[in-house]
Amino acid sequence: MKVPAIKKLVENYDLVSLGLAEEAIMEEKTPAIEIEGEDEGEQLTHVLAAIWIKGEMEKNNIEFIPALRNYTSRVRTSIS
User: Fold this and answer.
1) Which of 14, 29, 71, 72 could form a disulfide with 24 if both were Cys (CB 3.0 to 4.6 A apart)?
2) What is the pLDDT of residue 79?
3) Predicted model pTM
4) How far apart are alpha carbons 29 and 27 in whole angstroms?
């Protein structure tokens, strides 16, 4: 997971575009948007993170950094 790649997605695309990109990756197709990542798995990780963070930003009216912290906290909790 690379934060700069996620930030770029959050800043440049809306939730609809991100959702369509997720669907394309899941269907082993090329997404219509540019997604950084070494492989499809990393690209999917970036898109899913961007979707969650963007939703968090809109739902709670917060900026990127607090939403990113909420996301990484959620990930850490799920791993432990």
Assistant:
1) 29
2) 85
3) 0.92
4) 5
